[in-house]
Amino acid sequence: MRELPRDILIEVMEDVIEDLHGHVHRVADLSVNLGLGLGLGSDDLDRLALAGVLHDVGKIHLDPGILGKPGPLSEDERELMRRHPELGFAMTRNRMDPKVAEAILYHHERYDGRGYPFGLAGDAIPVLSRIVLVADAFDAMTSVRAYQPALPVEYAVSEIRANSGTQFDPTVVGIFLELAAIDKLPLALSA
Q: Which distant-in-sequence residues (6+ apart) come within 8 Å of 70 by Cβ?
């Protein structure tokens, strides 16, 4: 298995994804801290760091106009956007640790089974993916996006708390809330 240079992928991703550098590093940092709180070993922490950085790599195949669209996406655009986990998996599955590629593939699966691309639920979703989902959601809410301003940190924390057991793994949310309580959440400059 040949490893793709992470920095080259990030450079390509930066061409199409706004605030990519900040977003992926904040997701990676929070994912690793959540993994530490869950007691994961060093190999899984390394995988989380890489999966956090590369979770959106499939977006390089999408139209930048869709990625940066200021208003709501059309149904067709939303369907295209929902393909990025599978596209990222296809790019990484033969070049990286299989658990990293798997974390990319399943990072939009919801704990209640209403996520995508496969509708997996609960423990059927790999733990690394369940962790990246929480980190990604938090950063998405607290960062300026083309379609929304940065939301207050308190709002994002309350949303993650409220969606524990539905969108998010309750165990991961518990660790997230512990980090929030001690002010250890990586924040965008606008947060």
A: 146, 147
Q: What mean pLDDT comes out for the span 119-129? A: 98
Q: pLDDT tens digits, residue range 19-32?
A: 566 888 899 999 99
- Separation in Å, CA 135 to CA 99, 120, 132: 17, 19, 5
pLDDT at position 1 is: 43
Q: Which of 85, 92, 88 is nearest to 109 (CA)?
A: 85
**Over residues 67-74, mean pLDDT:** 87
Query: Which residues have C-beta within 8 Å of that of residue 54, sequence separation ≥ 6?
Result: 6, 9, 24, 88, 92, 96, 100, 104
Question: In a 3-state reduction of DSSP, which class is residue 174?
Answer: helix
Half-sphere exposure of 125 (CA within 13 A, CB side): 30
d(CA 55, CA 6): 12
Q: Return the domain boundaries, the chain.
A: 6-181
- Cα(2)–Cα(49) distance, integer angstroms: 18
The CATH number assigned to the domain with range 6-181 reads 1.10.3210.10
Q: What's the predicted TM-score (pTM) here?
A: 0.90
Of the candidates 152, 147, 171, 157, the one whose C-alpha atom is nearest the C-alpha of residue 78 is: 147
Say if CB 26 and CB 188 are below 8 A apart. yes
